[in-house]
Amino acid sequence: MTSTLLRTMMASAAAITAFPAAAQAEREVTFDIRAQPVQSALARFAEQTGMQILYPYDRVAGLRTAGVQGKMAPRAALDRLLAGTGLQINRAGGGVIALSLPKAVAAAKLVRTASLTPMGVPAAPPASASRAAQDVQESAAAQDSPDKEIVVTGSRGLPRTVADSPTPIDVIGASELQRTGRAGVFSALNTLVPSFNLPARAGGGTSTVIATGGLRGLNPDQTLILVNGKRRHKTSLINAVSSYYNGSVPADLDLIPTSAIDHIEVLRDGAAAQYGSDAIAGVINIILKKDKSGGFGSFTAGQNFDRSDGELFQADANIGFALGQDGFLDLSVSAKKQNASNRAEPISSSIRLYPLVNGALDSREATINRLVTTNYGAMPQESINTGFNAGYDLGGVELYSFGTYSQRKSDLNYTYRAPTNANSLPAVFPNGFRPHVMIAEEDYEVAVGARGALSGWDWDFSQTLGKNRSRQTADNTLNASLGPTSQTHFYVGTLISKEAVTSLDLTRGYAVGGGSLQVSGGLQYRVESYQVLAGEWASYAAGTYTSSLGRPTPGASGAAGFTPDDAGFLKRNNMAAYGDIVWDPSTRLTIGGALRFEHYDDDSGDTLIGKLNARYAVTPWVAVRGAVSTGFRAPALAQQIYASTTGQFRTIGTTLNLLQIKTLPVNSAAAIALGAEPLKPEKSTNLSAGIVLTPFARFTLTVDGYQIEVRDRIAITSTLTGTAVSAILTANGLSPDISAQYYTNAIDTRTRGVDVVATYQHPIGSVASMAWNLGYNYNRTVITHIKDNPSELGSLGSGYVLFDRLSQSNMTVNLPETKFFLGNVTTLAPFTLATRLVRYGSFKSYGNTIANDRTFGAKWVTDVDLSWKASDRLTVSAGANNLFNVYPDRNDTLTNVNTGAGFYSTGGAYGFTGGYYYGRVAIKF
Questions:
Q1: Residue 731 contacts by C-beta under 8 Å, 6 or more apart in sequence?
Q2: CA-CA to 230 of 20 to 30 Å: which in 294, 306, 794, 885?
Q3: Counting beta carbons within 10 angstroms of the beta carbon of residue 266, is it exposed (0 to 12), middle (13 to 18) or buried (19 or more)?
Q4: DSSP state of 553
């Protein structure tokens, strides 16, 4: 006989109609089948029902079933057993059931019968089985159904299809990620998920390094990141001085090798009651590959249209191995090199860069390169990410482990300091200088665990450990306060973030009436720590040297080091318990609920949150769904103790100033003197309602509206500067030359929006196929309450505001309010053409005065990727992101005349370096 790969698993209702004669299907049987490999599970099912099962034996290696215990109808038991495996019931009759798998090829070699003779040898199929097997083969030409994607995020225990989920979920496969031509996970999601926004550049300093994308207009750290369902650790870096997502401390998905990803599940709904802190906006779950054989390697290279800069080179590889008969090991690596791009322009010759010589212009004014800014674009970066995923079935217990290890080096070229700057000492840098900061990161995460079944319960016990360490150095700079003898290379300091999580998850299915009840619960213990290590003395020292141009600022220019007072270590423990139930009283109705209790041993204290959701199929092709939940996000440890000094341009009144901004730990004497209080968790309430339409085959349309209220939202204060602030800083042992900010539970916000997602697949005659994907998001955030000025600030005068108009706009109007995309993948063997048209809506930029307000119009951006499958092993591709070289609206009133930059806003989420083209070669083995 032959075996084939077939369409994705049919929904439960379809499976019921395909089952054997009603009398045989509806009789109840007592089942005792633990979670185990598909082959043995189907053998047990055949033993306990007397039915015969035909399935593509050679294609199910590595697949596992859920456990089934209790008395129920065989059709209900088989639905539960097959959920999540991808197997579907293709035909049934005469006591024989034929199963098939997605994405079939024309005939393979083996269909094996799962029913056993008393000797345990596969029985020969009866004559009626021949017709079933033939139907398995005939369905190979059918298209995949986009609404039948199986997901494990959002409901524990029993996997569901995307269309059957009571909450909105996007599923993005590895091939979709590759076809975007993007170098990282976050930038790929930006073009594939309508409610996800990734500003091209969040701000200055370490904000340019972190991949900072947010769901539904909220901060990146208000979305929980999972890998294989396990919590991912946070980065040690922080958006300390940025315009977008200010103060957030996210997990960095770009430190996961893209070659390791099987698919990504994006849950667009509050899920803190199910998964814990941070899941206010939703959950992004990275599912890793677990192949037993084969692999691929690919190499991509590209550069920008304009100025032929921003060259990017990326190499990816993945290979799978079998570990005996019942195990696998999947290895992956991704290496990337990003060169700099720059869109700055030469400054005017009327701007003096050198001090006057005897009252006259220095002759070097005529020869110096007036393109003084070289960092208005992408920063140089190199990284190598490795990963593994492994599992072994011991029979009653499956052992598993996965992990990643990464090294990344990021070059930050800071703003040019002209010779007229007091920090440019002629004896050291006669032509001025550009401080250069190198951030060297080492990041790893490893998880080990075991799962099995005991007394009818499926259990999963795991331990994960993650760490991110970023060491910062600076060169081509100096501490001018120490005079001309200052060194030009400095060790700035190190940031270290660690997280260890121990989890026990339990789940069990019960037959209740004519439906099923899934009961889950678990315990989790998490230990987090954050550490700041001081830099060397010269990097932060405040010397007494004064030049003819004035008193220099203390510390290494552009990269003042972490001081001994900045250094610190903070650790906390968290314990959590949850319960989660999902009841399917019929194939038309799903009702779910969850409760979670969390205890922190710091000021975050105790939290009890919950969630209710439901889905009801009004007709076979119309379903409604909705959810209500409460959530929370405990303040990150970094937000409590992080301290740094960074040079940033800030508009004070109508004047643009380069300020040395100090982020103060909330518990520091200076911060307390300015009104800081201990941080407390953010609290949220989520409401959502939607409709799912599947009016014809291979088409799905979902529309979901949502409202997210966040109370006590954590943000960085306005930049506090001026004589009164300087006096407070000086009184607390700090330099009077700096401005200050600190974290506070400053505001309450309300976000409202709508997500629309549609997918459709269809053939073009017998020669080609098309897959369409449409997405639309409308999202608007308003501030409903702002914390009153603390008395400490109020006493300084009316000019001091805790959260000014500029800071407010960074949370409300500086990202597009709408986003629309239309994607198409056309396959005409051996060619595949992927096109994507994205409209990024208009957005605004506010200042502290209305005169500084700006509006930026909507833009259409087109991406294209053409692949040629030259052979079974070799594929060659070429593509372009932003094919028509679209730029944001230019606004010269934003230009910093001293730097020749700033005229493009980065809030459009599509960059400001124009079009990019690339080529890719991939080999399968």
A1: 673
A2: 294
A3: buried
A4: P
Pairing of strands 112-113, 52-55: antiparallel
Q: 51 in helix, strand or coil?
A: coil
Distance CA 433, CA 417 (A): 5
pLDDT of residue 208: 73
Alpha-carbon distances, residue 443 vs 162, 287, 388, 713 (angstroms): 33, 19, 14, 28
The per-residue pLDDT for range 327-342, each reduced to its tens digit, is 999 999 999 999 999 9
In this prediction, residue 112 has a pLDDT band, given cuts at 50, 70 and 90, of very low
| Separation of alpha carbons 435 and 206, rounded Å | 14
| Angle CA 549–553–555, to nearest 5 | 135
Residue 733 pLDDT greater than 90, yes or no: no
Task: Transcribe 225-271 into DSSP letters.
Answer: EEETTEEPPPPS----SBSSSTT-----GGGS-GGGEEEEEEE-S--
Q: How far apart are the first and last CA of the chain?
A: 27
C-beta atoms surrounding 849 within 10 Å: 12
Q: What is the dihedral of CA 166, 168, 171, 172, to 10 degrees?
A: 180
Contact 778, 818 (CB under 8 A): yes
Question: What does pLDDT average to over the chain?
Answer: 85
Contact 309, 303 (CB under 8 A): yes
Average pLDDT over residues 798-805: 82
Helix (H, G, I), strand (E, B) or coil at 882: coil
Adjacent-strand bridge partners of 287? 263
Where would I find the beta strands (DSSP E) of 787-885? 818-828, 831-840, 843-845, 854-856, 859-869, 874-881
Please choose, from the candidates 869, 859, 865, the residue with its C-alpha nearest in 3D space to the C-alpha of residue 878: 865
Beta carbons of 839 and 820 less than 8 angstroms apart: yes
The pTM assigned to this predicted structure is 0.84
CA distance readout (Å), 582 to 507, 613, 802, 829: 11, 9, 45, 43
CA–CA dist 5, 632 (Å, integer) = 43
Provide φ and ψ at 255, rounded to 5°: -100, 15
With CA atoms as reference, report the closest residue to 566 among 491, 662, 661: 662
Distances, alpha carbon 592 to alpha carbons 270, 318, 468, 628, 682, in Å: 14, 38, 36, 11, 25
**Separation CA 885–CA 134 (nearest Å):** 52
Residues in contact with 101: Cβ distance below 8 Å, sequence separation at least 6, in sequence order: 4, 5, 6, 56, 59, 60, 86, 87, 88
* DSSP state, residue 42: H
User: Cα separation of 616 and 273, whole Å?
Assistant: 22
141: phi then psi, degrees, rounded to nearest 5? -80, -5
Tell me the percentage of the chain whose pLDDT exceeds 70.
Answer: 87
The count of other CB atoms within 10 Å of the CB of residue 628 is 16
Handedness of CA 246, 250, 256, 259 (dihedral sign): negative
Other C-beta atoms closer than 10 Å to the C-beta of 925 total: 10
pLDDT surpasses 60 at 401:
yes
Contacts of 746 (CB under 8 A, 6+ apart): 713, 714, 715, 717, 786, 787, 802, 803
